[in-house]
User: Fold these one by one.
Assistant:
Number 1:
Amino acid sequence: MLVDSHAHLDMYSAEDLPQVLARAYAAGVHTILAIGIGDGPHQMHRALEIAESITSPDLPTIYASVGIHPQEAASANLDNLIRLKSLAANPRCIAIGEIGLDYYHVENPDTSVQHAAFIAQLRIAATARKPILIHCRTSELATPEAKQKFGPGGPDAAWEDLLALLAEHWQPHSLPGIMHCFSGTVDQARRSIDAGFYLSFAGNLTYPAAKTIREAAAFAPAGRILVETDAPFLAPIPHRGQRNEPALVTLTAAALAELRGISSEALATLTTANFHTLFPTTGN
């Protein structure tokens, strides 16, 4: 069995979702973490609604997160933070996220706004004693306008800012988290692991140009790796460019298993155990 540790189930239509989940279960994906960011804070609740409404023994077990994405950082006002805190208290909500920094799109909020929203959500997660799901996107491949806005600190500024904020506002609480869709270097992987994080690998691991990601995936300790789809985004090879879905996490898992020199079955057992270690309330 496999766990898809990051999927945006609320982005599927009500008509499509049952079939998407049925295909996942048939493929051996029996647990999914649904990400509760919606199209903004007003839709944070949707992943929880899905998690609470899917109870069939023939479909995956679904858990949820709740969070304000860095692209929506300007909406991290008091009312929305109070709402986030309330949703986080739901037992079906097992994580806060995805939260973090995004220096890729020029229209994203200024760094100071992103930092403030991130810190506020770290405090909520620490109070709730729940792991965090990190989104970190650099300006390395961004437009010249975005590089001018976010790039004074260099192409890895988002990573450096992220790790500094975590060191100050998260690590003192001795709580874990996930670096979602990990796309960093071996050094960034090492620093993330040292900070208590798991690395979750998505379909971009399979892309021909993803040499750096594969190096990090080979480096990561066995006890700190997870797999995800980020569905409906980032479909793995040979489905790249198509709509992704949780069933396809099997392809990313197979690629990660080959990279690490183990069987797909061993990789499934390993990553499932890692997920349940990180989220003990999900059981085994």
Note: The mean pLDDT is 95.
Number 2:
Amino acid sequence: MMQLKKFQDYTALSTAAAAMIIECVRKKPGALLCFATGDTPRLTYQLVAEIAKKEEVDFGNCFFIGLDEWLGIPPDNTGSCHHFLHQYLFIPLGIHPSQFQLFDGLTTNEDGECERMNRLIEKKGNIDFMVAGVGMNGHIGFNEPGTDMNSMAHVAVLDETTRHVGKKYFQDEVPISKGITLGLKQVLQAETLLMLANGLKKAPVIKRTLEEEISNSFPASLIQQHKNGILMIDTEAASELETAQK
């Protein structure tokens, strides 16, 4: 059953999320970890790297996969998910290239790229710990509203909201019309799904996530059905919830 955890501010939320990731790796050193990118999890990952160094937590046997990637964007573009994960996790943690598999945003074989990720997850077993954000339209990864509940890794045509919000990650004007992402089935099969949201702009999104009908028309709401879903929000993101849930 989903747990809702509320925190005073973004720092407190990020500190708690980082502690959960560290705890997962301590309990299962060979964990399969799947991480989203974006503004919300950035501090969490920075704290994970700091704690791991300070407390000598060994990530050497973990394997990392990326939740999604913008199609058509090179890995060295600072707005790519590839660049983000290297900057905030892989380099600070000293993760070897043999320890991760990310989607190739420049692939010329989209179906083959999806199958490559599907096969890896199938071979390694379910994802042990997934960190996801919540899109302004309720998407998880690039699983846009209406995505098939049984979807595996796939290429998604990005919603207008996603394209508009996504521009902030890029220094230059780039065409972002498609993304490649793990599917809703893989998200919901993760042993632990940790969803993070902070700030006033996410308040209406969190309200819909928790108070509207659970449906793939607003994918974030599906966390309520997850066997071990944890939704962490700060007071600003919680500000539009009904009193009982605040």
Note: The mean pLDDT is 94.
Number 3:
Amino acid sequence: MHETGIEGYYTLKDGKKLRFGYTTGTCAAAAAKAAALMLATGQEVETVDIMTPKGIALNLEILEAKRDENSAVCAVKKFSGDDPDVTNGVLVYARAELKKEPGIEIDGGEGVGRVTKPGLKQNIGEAAINPVPMQMIRQEAERVAEDYGVTAGMKIVISIPAGVELAKRTFNPRLGIVGGISVLGTSGIVEPMSEAALVESIGLELRQKYALGCRRVIIAPGNYGTDFIRSLCYMEESELVKCSNYIGQTIDMAVETGFKELFFVSHIGKFIKVAGGIMNTHSKEADSRAELMAACALRAGCTAETALKILDCLTTDEMLKTLQEAGKLRETMAIAGERIDYYLNYRAKGQITIGALVFSNEQGILCTTGPAQAWLDELKEQTK
């Protein structure tokens, strides 16, 4: 059996080894590299090496390779490890063909969704290939062209035929992505997630930090939050705890462990839900971002017309832009901050001091609650 290099990577949860996998984005990049190699060399490719953004090197098997004079097609089978993922086992195809125009062009084919509404990371009409996979595909094709002296341009088309049916089991239709699934991945690697095991691992991290003398803990739902706070002040990754979507359970465990202070740093996309008392922010539990943002906007004095525009937005970034255009961004975020503060403290029942810093990548800090601003100033001073 072919070894890909992922075999040695796993996480321990509930005493069980859960295997890592690799994303559709990694499969697309590997298939694109193989197709480009076949086009450049005229030889069949059986495996390709690819380095993922996470730093894990993979050697992936190439399936269904075909070539003619001006094009080549290759496929890579998706492996999700022990993560419950609807795309596990699907074939991700890449077709590479030469073109007269210089440069690398990337598009989606059968089973890759196409964007039909504004507010997503892609423009209307573009294939639903997220930025990191897009960059991975482009880099692999460019390296092949450079290494083998290919002077013509190249077009790469990513297809996932099974994606047509699989898309019906995702949120894509609701988001205005039609015809297939999205090509996803930020690290190139799939890390398995068991809800009970993940919550327990958060509790374990909290207990470890408390045992080391920590009495204030900084919590972020994911990489956006940790990256943002580290952009403001010096902080080791080990000083942060990621809570994923489990806001309420993290508060409960922090209280139970004995922490005195809890400092949340979150993107508005997660914490606007907290403004409605939602303590598990996973989309399968609740997705009322637009409704809650519109309610905060009305409380802040926005017109009904602005609220209706917010309700039609697909992303929180688009909502913030709408508020900015209405001249009510600051006031609305202040209202949202008040509601977030209320529900965080309602969950904690006065047993721990909680502050939250809420941000967006484009707007920066949107609001702070409780002592969060003072804590941030303190961390900045320590950085100096």
Note: The chain has a mean pLDDT of 93.
Number 4:
Amino acid sequence: MLIDSHCHLDDYEDLPAVLDRARAAGVGRLLAIGIGDGPATMQRALELAHEHPQVWASAGIHPQEAHQATPGALAKLEVLVRDPRCIAVGEIGLDYYHADNPDIATQQAAFVAQMLIAVAAQKPITIHCRTSELATPGAKAKYEPADAWQDLLALLAEHWTPSGLPGIMHCFSGSDEQALRSLDAGFYLSFAGNVTYPKSTVLQQVARWAPSDRILVETDAPFLAPVPLRGQRNEPANAALTAKFVADLRGVSLELLAEQTTANFERLFPATA
């Protein structure tokens, strides 16, 4: 059995059929990411988790919505994460990729506030990190010379690592060094469909050597469909395609990779076992 460690199920109008296809593809459990369209709807993933036993949920305020991390929104998050079906806070982090995202100070304040909520609830976090390195000129002008990865790792070292809690680097897309620093900070590396893209050679290198007890697979559905479905709507069923690609990179069977990543997810989230 495979587990999709990151998908946005509240984006589907045909969710029952999507879940059926996931089950048929061997994807038996799913972590639905509870960011909604912003804090006003971040409870939707948790509602789905209560409706579907194979679905678990997170809740959080995405960095693109960091300006909405008001005291009221953070109080709502504190309530959501106390629900047993809510197993993580996220996706949270930093995004210096889009020029219309909130400024750095606003993003960092929202990130720190949510880490503190997760520490208080003793629940892992799932991280979103995008740099301005490949962004539009407008984003470069707004965010550089700051580096989202450097800022993220510094904030984690100050506010998260001392807690001893683990987390997930969602859709990991960093370098070998960033992978090592993430692992040292107690994070699992989750590989999405972009690992299958021909130009993702650095990411593929990380997927080859990453420790077998610290890797996960995800879809980020409905985004980032893997090859050969790139450009189409993604679905949790396609976690099987990404898992097969990663297994081939590592020179192991899909069955072994499924066993390893499922065990990793259950270690990270014992309630789901």
Note: DSSP finds ten helices and eight strands in the chain.
